[in-house]
Amino acid sequence: MHSAGTRASILSSYAIGGVFLLAIAIAVAPTLYAPRLPDVSVRVNSLAFLRYLPAEECDQAYIALDINADLRPLFHTNTKHVYAYVTAAYANSTTHVRNEVVVWDRMISSREAADVKVAKGWVKYSLKDWGVGLRGAPVRLWLRWSLMPRIGGLAYGGIEGEPYTMPVEYTQ
Amino acid sequence: MDLIGQERCEHVFQGVLLLSLAGAFGAGWIRESISLAYMVLGAGVAVGFVICTPNWRVFNRNPLTFATSSELAADMAAGSTGKGAASGKAAGGKAGASR
Hints:
The complex is a heterodimer of chains A (172) and B (99). Chain A has one helix and nine strands, in the order H-E-E-E-E-E-E-E-E-E. Chain A has one helix spanning 4-28; strands at residues 39-53, 58-70, 79-90, 99-108, 115-122, 127-128, 138-149, 155-160, 164-165. In chain A, strand 7 and strand 8 form a beta hairpin. Mean pLDDT of chain B is 83; it is low at 84-99. Chain B has four helices and no strands. Chain B has helices at residues 3-31, 34-52, 69-78, 83-98. Chain A binds chain B through residues 1-2, 4, 7-8, 10-11, 14-15, 18-19, 21-22, 25-26, 29, 75-78, 150-151, and chain B through 1, 6-7, 9-10, 13-14, 17, 20-21, 24-25, 28-29, 32-34, 37-38, 41, 45, 48-49, 52-55. Chain B: One of its GO terms (biological process) is protein targeting to ER. Chain B: It is a multi-pass membrane protein. Chain B: The chain crosses the membrane at residues 12-30, 36-56.
């Protein structure tokens, strides 16, 4: 600290410490309080078809969803964007007791865009089974999200929607 | 800068840094902007550098007075019994008085 050069050097190292302290505070602070859970409702509006795909030897269903999800509570200082997706989970046999398929997703980059309202939106990805297990399968819909922060680790969450049961027979 | 000025200078910079950290976090939290938080921190650090890097007169109020050569010669003559006692006396007498 005896000359301007050594002072500048030592103060710079303090300042860099401050930069990291601020980063840690920004990353940790939002995890210290429980966030308000968003209001979410997801349900199957209609089914276009449930059919057997001979080429891929599997069942395929094509559905439309009603999504009403106000994800604005998920946005805070450290939220870069929210990846929201709807999964359809079903159990259809003793060998595959837990199947979970992403049928719809959306990237939400601002609080203004976080009030998601989809009425009879046809899914982006059709619901395909690994085999022929979709007929009569009870399907549980979930709206899930992953929170991408600017600093720190990913956070996940989800809320279950209304259950739906597939038709017992192929529709085409 | 004298020795006391150096210590004060370091403490002043730490204080400025902590204050600007608190201000940066608060501003960033309220306006929900990390870039604003870092701008506030950067402004605080800049202020701290202006205060603490140049050799301002405030940090030179306690100059060290050095022993003259005749005093040193007298000390060395008196301290023939042991070096530690002599140097201890010199440091205690002169540097201690300047503080």
